[in-house]
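Consider one such protein record:
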Amino acid sequence: MTLTMTRVATDTLLTGPVTLSPSGPADSVTESVRESYDDHVLRFGRRPDVSAALLAAIEHEGLLGHGGAFVPVALKWRSALLRKGPLTVVANAAESEPLAGKDGTLIRQRPHLVLDGLMIAAQALGADRAIIWLHGDDHTARTVFEAAFKERGWSGRDVPIEIIDGPVHYLAGEAQAITRATSGGPALPFPRRNVTDPWAPQTLVQNVETLARLALLARGLPNPRTRLLTVLGAHRMVVEVDQSTTIEQVLISLRWKVAPQAVLLSGYAGIWAKWDDVAGLEVNEKKLRSAKLTLGAGVMVPLAEDACGIRVTADLVAYLASMSARQCGPCLFGMPALAEHWAALADEDGDRRTMDRLRADISAIEGRGACRHPDGATRLSTSALQTFSAHLGAHVSGMRCRHRMHVTLPGTSL
């Protein structure tokens, strides 16, 4: 199968695409333009004072969070305004997954747009505290923000901003883990709960891309109809494309010549999908969700035709099990069991009973974790069973798997 491409022009958040180091923080190995404060003001104007019309504008625009869950920003803000306790607003810049790089790239290219968004949110909501939450090994991001502070100066209306380096752990960028850590606890998700005390301290976590888009809306500027993506191919790249761009067009723009057999959407706890099912889909989140798919935080991993999807899935589930919060049975026992089943299937040591046990454990774990981390492993497993069903038949029947290439994704070699 060959691929064909249509070019789409668009206004953008980023100053340009970048190629990143293979995993970890979004340090570019190609040229990346960082916008100075003077250039930022020349391009966008100075940060505006917040008016009562801002929330209505956010709601009218339908601004969504861009950390992966796509919760409407207006919904989170209205919830925060209804409560009376002290408020902390957090700019979540922690991309804990080994491949993710869109937020780190945005920070490195347009830090002042992110800072504007954080200060606008803090002012609009009457926050007592503002925090930039980083993944612990993202030293470049800290340096960029510290330099940006020196460039712009501060005024009396600004809430002081703290930079906090979170732990180097997969769960460190999860909103509930951030809430817990910034309140003095461990950087692990809360067990699922409902807070009913309106006077309790509260934390509003917003992804840095969300804040950058907020900074544009607050100026009366259009919210770019684009999608920031981290795509793993021969290199790890961050690109920005119009939401009408298809997944096929994204890969061709990155010089893919032959169609992959499948694509992992949304990252290591994401969804496998057959190439023929997704090639023509646009990277518009609403349309993807209508197809029961999601790009989440914008990570896309194409799987080459000769790669073994069973082996890759086994590696991913083992990685997720190693990164668990260890706060409940599904994390302590269920996820390691899933990893064991997938390892047996990948090694061609499994049989139909292994498949039955895998399906039974998925059913036992789904929705029963103290947090949502186990659900990521079950979602990945369920999608792999569907996407690689024919491939699995060879693994459990004693036939030699024809997909012999073992692709090791960054960070999954345990």
About this structure: Confidence is low (pLDDT under 50) at residues 1-10. DSSP finds 16 helices and ten strands in the chain. Strands lie at 18-20, 87-92, 129-134, 161-165, 202-207, 226-232, 236-242, 262-265, 271-274, 299-303.
